[in-house]
From TrEMBL, chain A:
Keywords: ATP-binding, Cell membrane, Membrane, Nucleotide-binding, Translocase, Transport. Residues 12-240 form the ABC transporter domain. This is Unannotated protein. One of its GO terms (cellular component) is ATP-binding cassette (ABC) transporter complex. It comes from freshwater metagenome.
From TrEMBL, chain B:
The chain crosses the membrane at residues 7-27, 70-89, 101-120, 152-172, 254-273. The keyword Disulfide bond does not apply. It comes from freshwater metagenome. Belongs to the binding-protein-dependent transport system permease family. CysTW subfamily. Residues 66-272 form the ABC transmembrane type-1 domain. InterPro entries: MetI-like (IPR000515), MetI-like_sf (IPR035906). Coiled coil: none annotated. It is found in: Cell membrane. The keyword Cell membrane applies. This is Unannotated protein. PANTHER family: INNER MEMBRANE ABC TRANSPORTER PERMEASE PROTEIN YDCU-RELATED, INNER MEMBRANE ABC TRANSPORTER PERMEASE PROTEIN YDCU-RELATED-RELATED. Pfam families: BPD_transp_1. GO terms for cellular component: plasma membrane.
Amino acid sequence: MVKASIEARGDLRLTRLTKSYGDFTAVDDLSLTIPKGSFFALLGPSGCGKTTTLRMIAGLEEPTAGSIHLGETDITTTKPYQRPINTVFQNYALFPHLTIFENIAFGLRRRGQKDVKEAVDKVLNLVELPHLAERKPTQLSGGQQQRIALARAIVNRPALLLLDEPLGALDLKLRRQMQIELKWIQKEVGLTFVHVTHDQEEAMTMADTIAVMNEGQIEQMGSPAELYDNPETAYVANFLGQSNLIKGTISGNDGDSLIVDLYGQKIALPKNRSHAIDNSTYAGIRPEKFRISLLETPVHGNVLTGGRIEDVSYIGVSTQYQVEMPWGQELMVFEQNDDGVAPFNKGDAVNISWAPTFTFALRGDEDVTAGSEVEPEDLDEE
Amino acid sequence: MGKIRTPYLLLLPGFGFLFTFFILPIINLAQTSTQTRVSGGDTGQYEQTLRFTNYLDAFVENKEQFGRSFLYAIIATVLALAIAYPLAYAIAFKAGKYKNLLLVLVVAPFFTSFLLRTIAWKQILGEEGFVVPTLRSLGIISESTTLTSTSFAVVMGMTYNFLPFMTLPLFASIDRIDPRTLEASGDLYANGLTTFRRVTLPLSMPGVVAGTLLTFIPAAGDYVNAAILGNPNTKMLGNVIESRYFKIVDYPTAAALSFTLMAAILILVTLYIRKAGTEELV
């Protein structure tokens, strides 16, 4: 039995997984399959249930209901030490009394491997810290500790590697570098990585598949590009990047397109990007998809007229505009600084245009602020 | 200039205190330990003759009590550790909001006198207490067995009296352990027992060392427990020193015994700290 669970390999399957603490439901009837060998991210703000989900997979929390399968093996109630799963903890949780070498060898020794030197040296080389083997964890910088925590987990060649906000404690520059390294290491060792984060950029950089979580449930799941280009809910549209959501009514059909009336102006969008359930809808357009033009310039695609530039912020790679529309809403527009200068000024009367394929449509009864109010930098998981 | 002098000025009261109440008495005690009786003099009259064989005589005469002191102290320390470790662990990791309350309860006995509490044990273990009748009715001890005035009572008294000294440093040490390192251990294939052996215990070693020293050292020199809960056959070195000094008025032997005890404790403690690997202590 013990042997069987520790040898389990294959896809990770969560079935109707639920975890409640008294009246509070942290994870609510969650079902999910994570294919073997993929880099999977659970993305969401604090308290969305992503860390609880991860801890249940690791065996550190017992589910209130539902099951967890690894391949054909049911590991729902298996003890953590009997699962072929290792975790990179948020604060690394290295053993302060052991050397780096012994920290990494810990898992191998517990499984009765006698000769650990070769494996430990190899993984120390992989994380490029072979010279630190005899140091103690407290003598290492945050970035080094992070890599050792990773080495300590992957040296065991687990069926599944769990990463709990692994880069949260690092500064921005180091975080970027580690994102690329983690992705590279995952390809190199070919393990299944399940990554929990509140940082949408981190999830998009590394993961093949992202599940956006909200209040214990999966809001939407897909590749980074799918989630970004075609969000199904306002929560996803706002949590991954920024979105302009404009209230409208679906007024007609045109082949593969829907015609939507936005405050009297008609635009088109692909039918397969509409998630509306009736005629009432929110049309969504990402700020960088918009093009601004002066009134006399001819434009193609969807056009909204009557805009007025309210604010201009030059931020180097792009210029961000706030454009006030006739119905009072301010739209966000990011323009590439191709020619090096911001060509529009505050107060200019402008049209806004974009390609119809860049439009998505949400249900008309959505809360347009969902997902945008959360503070993504808030790290307080507990 | 003034800045350099400040630390020394701050140290002055402490030094003064130590000098008056520790260094001077020690010197005095050292002098006394090699004195001999003035021939034909009164009781308590001694003169300095640098008779170092006082030490040998004192040791040979009392080696039984010597051995008993260390034996009792070791047993009491081990028992206290066995009781205090789970207690400290539970307070640190499992008590939740009751943590502070439980800590107060550990210290609460200090609010009453050490002597009173020891005398209370005499009643607990006495014929009228509930322990003896219960054990008798369960057939664990025979009808004729008593618990007062036994070595058992002495060791129990010592264990009880020194328990807080064991519990507090252990708690301080265990409380500092990041529970996530214990989770990490489980995550890395260590079961509960292995996690305890490989992670919890090593990380709590500073507390174990501090607690055992704080228990063993005073226990080895203790005489109150043996005096109140014991009998003439459970005398410890502390009792011998007390009676030599106050009853027989044999100052040199009492002084020599005190020094021998001090030296023995020092040697044992040094060996122990070496063995326990004190690099983790700092």
